[in-house]
Design brief:
The chain is of the alpha+beta class. The chain has a single domain, classed as archaeoglobus fulgidus dsm 4304 superfamily (archaeoglobus fulgidus dsm 4304 fold), CATH 3.30.2170.10. The protein is built from 5 helices and 11 strands. A hairpin with a 2-residue loop joins strand 8 and strand 9. The radius of gyration is 16 Å and the shape is globular. The two termini are 32 Å apart.
Length: 217
């Protein structure tokens, strides 16, 4: 069982390693997502080209699910299947979109920030619902400091909450995500989600000592 106080301290410590800086030139963008079924966590990493928003690569990781969802501690549940899928990619993306929040988090360290710090790569949180902050027009404001911690955009008429994970600025993150909105979907993360649903058809029988499924590809 997760020790919440210890987990908070980890988040507070690692949040100091978040880097805010302009994005580099971006040719490819990744998307990370996880879905669950029958005690298993299905992690998917996808890569798409920015110029035509076409998929380049998809990687899967199927793991035994060992922790329930606890609000504001999503990373401790999902970072393992996400990173295991990401590490299988042959074509590492320039920027990673994560299904979850980054700085729009009570401790400024959601799962997108956690992954960005661990990998040392640009990450952006893209979420369907608000976790923390007050909506003021398109801005998401930290009620305790008055700082802007995220943006609210619409893709296909639906709200999406955008926040920096690490190694990006909010302006750059928002502009990139808006560019990736196509037919009502933010392609990298929504495509990753679709593949998590497809992955659920896989019923692995063998797992390694760390709880990851032994797949044949």
């Amino acid at each position: 069982m997760l020790n919440l106080e210890a987990a908070k301290k980890v988040q507070e410590l690692l949040s100091k390693r978040v880097v805010l800086k302009p994005l580099p030139p971006v040719d490819t963008v990744g998307g990370l997502d996880v879905s669950y079924a029958s005690g298993l966590a299905y992690g998917v990493a996808v890569v798409v080209k920015v110029d035509d928003i076409q998929p380049v690569e998809v990687a899967y990781s199927i793991n035994k699910s060992v922790m329930p969802y606890v609000p504001t501690f999503l990373a401790f549940r999902e970072i393992t299947p996400m990173l295991r899928a990401y590490l299988k990619l042959r074509n590492k993306p320039d920027v990673i979109l994560v299904d979850g929040h980054g700085l729009a988090h009570p401790r400024r360290f959601g799962i997108a920030s956690h992954i960005g710090v661990v990998l040392g790569r640009p990450t952006i949180g893209v979420a369907k619902s608000r976790l923390y902050g007050e909506e003021q027009g398109e801005a998401l404001i930290d009620p305790s400091t008055g700082e802007e911690i995220g943006r609210v955009i619409r893709c296909g008429g639906k709200k999406r909450y955008i926040s920096v994970g690490s190694h990006a600025t909010l302006e750059d993150a928002t502009a990139l995500v808006e560019k990736l909105c196509k037919n009502g979907e933010i392609v990298p993360v929504d495509l990753a989600h679709k593949h998590t649903q497809l992955a659920k058809r896989i019923k692995p029988e063998k797992f390694d000592q760390w709880g990851e499924a032994l797949l044949d590809y």
